[in-house]
Specification:
The protein has 381 residues and is of the alpha/beta class. The protein has 12 helices and 16 strands.
Length: 381
């Protein structure tokens, strides 16, 4: 565990999180993850020695967040190649593990393509596997570079929209180093503002039902010494009404060709609130999150999560007796549940989309297409 007090008392940056890494030990290759289901109480690693284990980790949210899922998908295909398994099948399994997150399929298919290209050129399985691993590592590195660029562009946009600093930013879900090869997407902008002295307050939505904000964003904010407060998702409206929010910053799991944005459920209500209160609503995401093959928001497949995430819960003070004779510390609600993982925000509610290639504002299909065309010609070293 990191001693946060010691880090902050001497004014130094906390050590970088090791969120995902490749283990090429003689015992056999593996993808090693920081298990996000155990945070913030425990920093534990999860070793995935084969593709089914990695798929399970993705589905259970041990590893999550669009950019990091792309990296995980890439390493997963490299893992299958290193084990001499069916690479095409591995890419298919990984890409389908979470259907809304376009980066996952992008990373898996990209590394699969590199592997197949090596085979077509006459490489044996071992050499092709090395090519796949090199491509996964390149993807990992590119995402770290993209994260830094998004932070810079996002900070410049905030300075333009909100001159004078002292920004009070509201964010939803988790968009920091836990979702990225670098320091994140939307959270990276807030972190850059903090380092530059222009962040007054970070408002962190709990992000129900799995509390990615209260558990994970709060963990990262505390780790980096940001001024922050956690609020229930339903309390955001009162913050807007009180004039306590200067801008909303969120990430994205898929951006359709028309600029509609799929992100963690609860994002769309924030966009509506922001529009009503004349507050900028900013999406921060890498270009790889843009899916030009999905024409509009209505075409985005929204993942439906298990009802148990809503109907099963732990009482405060686990170990004490629950109401009506329920098992001590736990309980279930005798009901069906509507539990979409994401919602979709239409482009007219989005002030700007910040990518590593620049800012799009206003958000239009033509602007996105131009950005993607420009990005395809860029080589990140």
């Amino acid at each position: 565990m990191v001693d946060q007090d010691a880090c902050s008392s001497v004014g130094v940056e906390p050590p970088a999180l090791s969120v995902l890494r490749w283990d090429g030990s003689p015992e056999g290759p593996a993808v090693v993850l920081l298990d996000q289901t155990r945070l913030p109480s425990q920093e534990a690693e999860l070793v995935c020695a084969d593709v089914p284990a990695l798929v399970q980790a993705i589905r259970t949210l041990a590893v999550r967040g669009a950019p990091l899922l792309g990296i995980a998908g890439g390493y997963g295909v490299a893992l299958a190649a290193a084990r001499g398994e069916d690479v095409a099948r591995a890419a298919e399994l990984l890409a389908g593990a979470r259907p809304t997150a376009v980066n996952l399929g992008y990373g898996a298919r990209r590394v699969e393509s590199a592997y197949l290209a090596a085979v077509r050129k006459g490489a044996d399985r071992g050499a092709a596997a090395e090519t796949a691993l090199a491509e996964a590592r390149a993807l990992h590195k590119e995402d770290a570079v993209a994260s830094a660029r998004m932070a810079r562009y996002g900070l410049e946009l905030l300075a333009e929209l909100l001159p004078g600093g002292a920004h009070r930013l509201l964010t939803h879900c988790n968009t920091g180093a836990l979702v990225s090869g670098g320091e994140g997407t939307a959270f990276a902008v807030a972190l850059e503002a903090h380092r530059g002295g222009s962040l007054r307050q970070l408002w962190v939505d709990e992000t129900r039902p799995l509390l990615q904000g209260a558990r994970l964003t709060a963990y990262e904010a505390a780790r980096n010494g940001l001024p922050f407060s956690v609020l229930t998702d339903s309390a955001a409206g009162s913050l807007f009404a009180a004039g306590e929010v200067d801008a909303v910053l969120i990430g994205a799991d898929r951006i359709a060709a028309d600029g509609a944005v799929a992100n963690k459920v609860g994002s769309y209500p924030l966009a509506v609130l922001a529009k009503y209160h004349h507050v900028p609503f900013i999406v921060v995401a890498p270009v790889s999150t843009v899916d030009l093959l999905t024409p509009d928001g209505a075409s985005i497949i929204v993942e439906q999560r298990s009802a148990s995430e809503v109907t099963e819960f732990t009482y405060p003070g686990a170990g004490q007796a629950g109401p009506e004779g329920a098992e001590a510390g736990t309980g279930t609600r005798p009901a069906q549940a509507y539990n979409p993982a994401f919602d979709v925000t239409p482009p007219e509610l989005v002030t700007a989309i910040v990518t590593e290639e620049g800012v799009i504002s206003p958000v239009t299909g033509a602007g996105l297409a131009e950005l993607c065309a420009r990005s395809s010609q860029v080589t990140i070293s």
